Amino acid sequence: MSKITQYSTIGALMSGHLSGDFATGTAHNKQLFGLGCSCGISGELTVSQGQFWEATAGEPLHHFTDKHLPFLQVTEFVAEHSFSAKNVTDNNIDKLLSEQLPIANIFLAVNVKSCFDEVVIRRPQRDEKHSRTAKEMSEVQHVDKLSSVSGQLIGFWTPELFGRISVPGFHFHFLSDDEQHSGHVLSFSAAEATVDYQEKETIEIHNATSEKFKSLDIDITQLDELISQVEK
């Protein structure tokens, strides 16, 4: 499909709306691709070929079985464009993609495959009570540095203009080929990589309808700083 489907916004998530308002039962198909988080940000979710993987500190990577989520960003992904690149990092992938097409004002679904020299990922601690804030989650997250690991980066490029809807710039999650490692990507480097991407003309936002969400107090003045602190 030419659209990204998103449940809630990064702004609402960072502002404390962490309960699972959105059911994923109808979302499964073999081309489904994307990322999200589980309730209370207890796990980073990565969606590949219609399968949901949850990465939580202190737990093996596992298929996600809870059908309700506070945030999910997905699309049907079939690579429309592909290129090979050398010396790819989190610091230059925007430049590499900009050499293919102007990206400043468009949405992209991006899949980077490689045997990565290094991938740094984070996984949150589980919070059964859903009592902490996103900032508190980020302060106790578990960070892993993986070396010489084969896998893929799954994610999206969002223009700065839409930075309170989705994470501005790149937002990647990692899934290793052996399905043993996953998480939110903090940094990466690869001597060689294949970059597949799709331009997305539409982003469809499903807003939460609960009374809790409707009464949520969102501090816009601090939101951009919080998104950058927690997600980057």
Topology:
Blueprint: E1 3-7, H1 10-14, E2 22-23, E3 32-37, E4 44-48, E5 51-55, E6 62-63, E7 68-69, E8 71-76, E9 81-89, H2 93-98, E10 107-123, H3 134-139, E11 142-158, E12 169-176, E13 182-200, E14 202-206, H4 211-214, H5 220-231
Parallel strand pairs: 1-14
Antiparallel strand pairs: 1-8, 2-7, 3-4, 3-8, 4-5, 5-6, 9-13, 10-11, 10-13, 11-12, 12-13
Q: What's the helical proportion of residues?
A: 10-25%
Strand order of the largest sheet: 6-5-4-3-8-1-14
Query: If you compute it from the alpha carbons, what radius of gyration comes out, rounded to the nearest whole angstrom?
Result: 16 Å
Oligomer: single chain
Q: How are helices and strands ordered from N to C?
A: EHEEEEEEEEHEHEEEEHH
Q: Report the principal-axis shape.
A: globular
Q: Total strand count, please?
A: 14
Low-confidence segments, given as residue ranges, are none
Task: Let me know the average pLDDT.
Answer: 90
End-to-end separation in angstroms reads 28 Å
H/I helix tally: 5
Reported for the largest beta sheet, the result is: 7 strands, mixed
Beta strand % = over 45%
Structural class assignment: mainly beta
Describe this structure in words.
- The protein has 232 residues and is mostly beta strands.
- Helix content is 14%, strand content 47%.
- The protein has helices at residues 10-14, 93-98, 134-139, 211-214, 220-231; strands at residues 3-7, 22-23, 32-37, 44-48, 51-55, 62-63, 68-69, 71-76, 81-89, 107-123, 142-158, 169-176, 182-200, 202-206.
- The strands form three sheets. A seven-stranded mixed sheet has the order 6-5-4-3-8-1-14, with no helix packed on it. Strands 9, 10, 11, 12 and 13 form a five-stranded antiparallel sheet that branches.
- The longest helix has 12 residues, at 220-231.
- The protein is globular and about 50 Å long.
- The protein starts with a strand and ends with a helix.
- The mean pLDDT is 90.
